[in-house]
Amino acid sequence: MATTIKTSSKNYFNKIQKYLNNKRVFFTPSLNLGVYALTIFDLNQDQTNSLISKMTKHFHLSPKQQEPLALAA
What we know:
Helices cover 37% and strands 23% of the residues. It is built from two helices and three strands, in the order E-H-E-E-H. A three-stranded antiparallel β-sheet has the order 1-3-2, with helices on one face. The longest helix is centred in the C-terminal third of the chain and has 14 residues, at 45-58.
């Protein structure tokens, strides 16, 4: 399962990248049209939900509804 975190703030991008490195989570950073993105790999849904919950609390963010999962081919 892959999860993508997007932000337009370079500051938050760097903070989240550092956070994920400290948690030893495998991710790929990217920049597209001024939007910074971090795609997280190799976590199941429970692990992803836990990570996002902890990260939301750590950075004092309000949670945004997740996009629906894509249907399997």
